[in-house]
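Sequence in, structure out.
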Amino acid sequence: MRRLLDFLYDAAAALAALFMFGLLCMVLLSVVSRQLDFHVPGTDAYAGYLMAASGFLALAHTLRRGEHIRVTLLLNALPGRMRNALELWALSIATLLALLFALYSCKLAWQSHAFHDISTSNDATPLWIPQLAMALGTVLLAVAFLDELLLQALGRRSAANSGAALRNE
């Protein structure tokens, strides 16, 4: 199960990187088209879709690597049992919020499909297509939080490397 979950997180991150590259291509196309006096319709809308997709799909992978922003000042000052209790409480709340976010993201994509909702820009893209990436990303984030919660409850969760976080700030 661990290998499957890690594969899902890594695959979503790879897809996020691919969408980030697509975003770069859309922005470059937009810049070049303006310089050469021709217009490619929909580049701004698709750049937005790709940016949202890359952000949402990277959430679970980022969580598993311990790269989300955490305030550990209080956590580091607590002794073992209290620290574990606070971690369990925080992960429980985060899991609940992620599950609600996933539920409503999936509901939004489903409703957009059911109502044939399309983009208001000139590309007229069915909105459920870009919303699928948000729904998938939030579902994977909820799974990742549930994964972290279960690992913490079983005492198998590895602490995030604080040295790596300091290098990134």
